[in-house]
Amino acid sequence: MATEDDVRRICLGMPGVRERPSWGQPAWFAKTLMARLWEEGVGTVKTNEREALAAMNPDTFFWTPHHDQSPQLMLIRLERIDTDELDELLQESYRIAGGPGKPK
C-alpha cells in the first residue's frame, strides 16, 4: 500500500522536482506538473497508458470528467498499489513532465 509520504519521497528524490501547492493540495513539479494529491488517498500522475491501466484495473486507476481534456492525467487509489508500482508510474510522469535529468 502506497501513501502520500511515499509519493513525496519518490518525487523529491528525482532531480529538479519541487513541491508546491496546486488547488490546495500538495503537488510535485518537474518542468510541469508531474504528480498531485487529488484528495485523501488519491494521487494524480501523467501517463501514456491511462486507458490501458484503467481497463485492466478500474478500481485502482481512473479519471473524472475534469481530466477528460488532459488525456495523460490519471488518478490512482494509493491504497491499491505498492510502492514499486508507484515508483514506476512517477518515473514515467517525471519524463512526461519534462524532468531535467534521468530519474534515479
Automatic annotation (TrEMBL):
InterPro entries according to UniProt: YjbR-like_sf, YjbR/MT2646/Rv2570-like
Record-given protein name: MmcQ/YjbR family DNA-binding protein
Organism lineage string: Bacteria, Bacillati, Actinomycetota, Actinomycetes, Micrococcales
